[in-house]
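The protein record filed here.
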Amino acid sequence: MIKFNIKYFVIFIILFVSEVLIAKYATGFLRHTFGDYLSVMLLYTFIKSFIKISALKAGFIVLLIAYIIEFLQLTNLENLYPLKYRSILKLILGTSFSIPDLVAYTLGVATILIFEKL
């Protein structure tokens, strides 16, 4: 059911600003691993901002999306990005498969589910 939730939307905005700052200014672990960890939280809070859904279902959907995007990086998908949008799509969707990214996504969703239980 569609229902706006201001609490999740505010958290989404905070995470979005954090992700933009990390993408723009950070390097190494902070950008590559912590950014992935936060990205699933960003997607989760976006979904929960507009759709009334259980935490478990939303977490599963978010993890599924993150895994699909990561496994698509095993293909030549990045070569199909339109030139006009290539740099932003590379930033958002990534360019190379990484098992540590899968771990970061899983830990991010696990963190969300733990916080939701509290």
